[in-house]
From TrEMBL:
One of its GO terms (molecular function) is lyase activity. Residues 11-251 form the HpcH/HpaI aldolase/citrate lyase domain. Mg(2+) binds at residues 134, 161. The keyword Transmembrane helix does not apply. Its cofactor is Mg(2+). Gene3D superfamilies: Phosphoenolpyruvate-binding domains. Substrate binds at residues 72, 134. This is L-malyl-CoA/beta-methylmalyl-CoA lyase. Keywords: Lyase, Magnesium, Metal-binding. The gene is mcl1_1. It is an enzyme of class 4 (lyase). Pfam families: HpcH_HpaI.
Length: 316
């Protein structure tokens, strides 16, 4: 099996409330790589039980194709969590549970023990766990969280709750506050302002933890789902940084987000030239070579190989 065959595409992870059957059916028909059925923040307390039943029905009845299907359960300590895990874990079509408000490794250990006791023998592969890092404490503990269980497959950055956790004055989920900017004095009494990115640090922190422990990294959503420009720009930022994908909250965001995480023809062509040039250099006993006027070495080779792997995975 090639690396591309084994790679789970997560360019677009569409979120949908599990209690909204029409929306769930639309998500199943969508072109998203993955869908997560939400039992947590998108579901009012009075509809939690109905949302769980909706998730079960959707997993048993709908055709999900090759999509990765996840369910976001409620946080550790909630009154419904254990019942959710017992109900969902045995379902063969469920790939992963998303654990929100991940903060303490001991909590993740509790949850994975519940999964182990509940999943049974009907599954073809063990149920994995994705951790949603969305509080200040979760970010501080992210390294320990990332290695708290062998079931963990991915880290997600929860941009909305994280901004609230640190007290950021941002009205747009995934965006920086308007006033978060650097102002400097220039010549002749002129002032210059540079907008700053609230999420530069948490994105890098989550990404580094994911890569250090062999996990996928998923960025949080762009809340301005009707704004194609912002959706595209924020997806391109996450893709350029190295994330595997991004949550989306509306089907209209799927195409532009997928495109941002899919290597372009130019990217693939350059990566191919890098791999071929480095192969020739190795045959000649050299560890570096010039490609398109740039000096290329083994670090570039690894980046090129990842681009080619992403391109191959996207064709499956």
């Amino acid at each position: 099996m090639s690396q591309a065959d084994d790679y789970r595409l997560s360019r677009t992870v569409l979120a949908v409330p599990a209690n909204r059957r029409r929306h769930v059916e639309s998500a199943a028909r969508s072109t998203a790589d993955a869908v997560f059925l939400d039992l947590e923040d998108a579901v009012p307390e009075s509809e939690k039980a109905g949302a769980l039943q909706g998730a079960v029905s959707a997993l048993q009845e709908l055709d999900w194709g090759s999509k990765t299907v996840l369910v976001r359960v409620n946080a550790h300590g909630s009154r419904t969590l254990e019942h959710e895990i017992r109900t969902l874990s045995p379902l063969p079509r469920l790939n992963s549970l998303i654990v929100p408000k991940a903060e303490r490794p001991a909590h993740i250990e509790d949850i994975t023990r519940m999964i182990g006791a509940a999943e049974g023998n009907a599954r073809r592969a063990p149920l994995t766990v994705d951790l949603l890092i969305e509080t200040a404490l979760g970010l501080v503990m992210v390294d320990s969280l990332a290695q708290s269980s062998a079931r963990i497959a991915a880290l997600h950055l929860g941009v909305g709750d994280f901004a609230g956790s640190i007290g950021a004055r941002s009205a747009e989920i995934g965006g920086s506050p308007d006033a978060y900017r650097q102002t400097v004095a220039g010549a002749a009494g002129r002032y210059f302002e540079t907008p700053l990115d609230l999420f530069a640090y948490p994105m890098m922190r989550v990404l580094v933890a994911a890569r250090a422990f062999g996990l996928r990294a998923i960025d949080g959503p762009c809340g301005a789902y009707r704004d194609a420009t912002l959706t595209r720009a924020w997806a391109e930022k996450a893709a350029a940084l190295g994330f595997d994908g991004k949550q989306v909250i509306h089907p209209s965001q799927i195409e532009v987000t997928r495109d941002a995480f899919t290597p372009s023809a130019e990217d693939l062509a350059f990566a191919t030239r890098v791999v071929e040039a480095m192969r020739q250099a190795e045959n000649e006993g050299r560890g570096a070579v010039a490609v398109d006027g740039k000096m290329i070495d083994y670090a570039n080779l690894r980046m090129a190989q990842r681009i080619l792997m992403l391109g191959a995975a996207g064709r499956h």
